[in-house]
Amino acid sequence: MSVSAKICGLTTPEAVAEAVRHGADYLGFVFYPRSPRALSYEAAAQLAAVVPAGVKTVALFVDPSDADIAAALQAHAFDLLQLHGNETPERIAALRARFGRPVIKAIPVSGLEDIEKARQYIDVADMLLFDAKAPKSMADALPGGNGLSFDWELLASHWTSDKPWMLSGGLDADCLEDAVTTSGATRVDVSSGVEERPGIKSLAKIRAFLAVAARL
Ligand SMILES: O=C(O)c1ccccc1NCC(=O)[C@H](O)[C@H](O)COP(=O)(O)O
Known about the structure:
Layout: E1 4-7, H1 13-21, E2 26-31, H2 41-48, E3 56-61, H3 66-75, E4 80-83, H4 89-99, E5 103-109, H5 112-117, E6 127-132, H6 153-158, E7 165-167, H7 176-183, E8 187-190, E9 195-197, E10 200-201, H8 203-215
Parallel strand pairs: 1-2, 1-8, 2-3, 3-4, 4-5, 5-6, 6-7
Antiparallel strand pairs: 9-10
Helix pairs in contact: 1-8, 2-3
The structure holds ligand LARABZUK.
């Protein structure tokens, strides 16, 4: 059994092609202006246009307006929406209904209470993405893409729902096997761990990450 993989924060045609060639299942495009991976809708649409049908394109937002999502979907028919902010269950239900796209809801995790809080999204999101919550002391933290991990054991011990979920936060080719074995994840997501520096993906690290995912 291989583990499904999402490569997030892609910014160049070369990185998109490498991720597709080596078996990524999902490709994420970040629409959050403060991110070093942020793209315009037009730039992301150009990258996504060459992605083959079997690979899902994901448009990532933080507390978007309806107009933000409409503009992205007008530029390209992204397959899924990923919401990485403080979106409520009601907001997610409304966005799903309006835009007809499956929603991945990111859940920031630092402790057991965060796993419990995720339950409120089970009925409205199509998939959950458990990501590390940045500590308050990290002044320049983003809502995601910080290269931080959390205690993977929390998921194995406390997450009991059948709702599809992804493990995220601080993953790379070196820790992926341990992360998957410890958490029980069957889907994983990475950004910083396949980069040379923030916003610049490493083709070699993408290959190495996807090779581990494929053999797990
Ligand atoms: O990647 C970003 O810059 C980003 C900015 C704002 C919200 C979310 C963001 N990324 C979300 C992702 O899906 C990342 O892949 C996830 O947080 C894991 O990141 P990393 O720990 O760097 O692998």
